[in-house]
Design brief:
Layout (H helix, E strand, L loop, with lengths): L3 H28 L6 E7 L2 E3 L2 E3 L2 E3 L5 E4 L4 E6 L3 E5 L3 E7 L6 E6 L2 E5 L8 E5 L2 E5 L3 E5 L2 E6 L1 E6 L2 E6 L2 E4 L2 E4 L2 H28 L1 H15 L1 H7 L6 H12 L5 H7 L5 H23 L1
Parallel strand pairs: 9-11
Antiparallel strand pairs: 1-4, 1-6, 2-3, 2-5, 5-8, 6-7, 7-10, 8-9, 10-13, 11-12, 12-15, 13-14, 14-17, 15-16, 17-18
Helix pairs in contact: 2-7, 3-4
């Protein structure tokens, strides 16, 4: 009898380890989603990172310098909350990657900035020469002597003079005015590019958490339509079906509010996809407004 006790102890501790691993795995799958503080997406050559020509998607660090040369275009995404579109001949530096309040220094050129207020970022500051823009949720264009706003409002300082720049307004060389037709066209182009970046972020979230996303989409679709549900319940959801499902949500054919009410938002990847989808719907409405 005494010889069996060590075996029982080994089995007990082994069971604890297995349970611990299962709990950890469940936590990582259900309640955590991968987060990249800063990433660069090169959209057309030539783009330099710290004076080295690069392409594709690259993770960024604090103090990194990004420069788009002639015909170069790129976007920087901070904490999947802020999208910074760089026009050609633009140079920026990642000054501070503190999550609550990231900061960028714009050394030259022009950027279009969309701040979604998603995922824990509370404020964003962009400095260009003697201009400083501080925002808590908006979209705007900034160059050294000019700012114009597509949505929301921006706290802006030019040569020490403070402005609150509202939607459809601009401040150029310290003078406030309405947008020109050309600036409105620029806003439309920038929103279209921002939409692509938001969809890219959502797609990546889905790819990184495909198993759990498939399960939830299947649950929502089964509850949505009984007849369709009978068929879906007998097979796996495909990635193309997820794309089609989200396209319908983006276009208003399916209600995001109804889906949000049914989906388990406590699961981090699910909440992330929902929040990005709501932002995509918002940007699509702004594209329609400026078209």
């Amino acid at each position: 009898m005494e010889e069996k006790k060590p075996k029982k102890k080994i089995f007990f501790y082994a069971s604890l380890i297995i349970i611990g691993l299962l709990v950890t795995f469940a936590y990582l799958i259900l309640f955590r989603a991968s987060e990249i503080p800063a990433q660069l997406n090169v959209e057309s050559a030539i783009v330099n990172l710290n004076d080295i020509s690069i392409s594709g998607n690259v993770r960024l660090s604090e103090s990194d310098i990004i420069e788009t040369l002639s015909s170069g275009k790129a976007s920087v995404i901070l904490y999947e909350s802020i999208v910074v579109n760089l026009e050609e001949n633009t140079k920026i530096k990642i000054s501070d990657l503190q999550k609550a309040h990231p900061k960028i220094s714009q050394e030259k050129g022009s950027t279009w900035n969309t701040f979604t207020k998603l995922f824990g970022v509370k404020e964003y500051t962009l400095q260009s020469g003697n201009s400083v823009a501080s925002i808590r949720g908006t979209s705007f264009s900034l160059s050294e002597n000019k700012i114009f706003v597509g949505d929301g409002n921006v706290d802006y300082k030019y040569d020490g003079t403070a402005f609150i720049v509202d939607k459809n307004k601009a401040v150029e060389n310290g003078i406030s005015r309405k947008l020109t037709s050309q600036e409105k066209k620029q806003i439309l182009t920038n929103y279209i590019e921002t939409l692509d970046r938001l969809k890219f972020l959502r797609k990546k979230t889905i790819e990184d958490n495909l198993i759990i996303i498939k399960i939830i989409v299947k649950m929502v679709k089964i509850e949505k339509t009984t007849n369709e549900g009978d068929l879906i319940s007998q097979r796996q959801i495909t990635e193309s079906e997820i794309d089609l499902f989200l396209d319908k949500v983006d276009n208003g054919e399916l209600s995001i509010s109804e889906i949000e009410a049914k989906a388990p938002k406590f699961i981090t990847p699910i909440n992330k996809v929902l929040q990005l989808t709501k932002e995509i719907i918002k940007v699509k409405a702004l594209i329609k407004e400026y078209s």
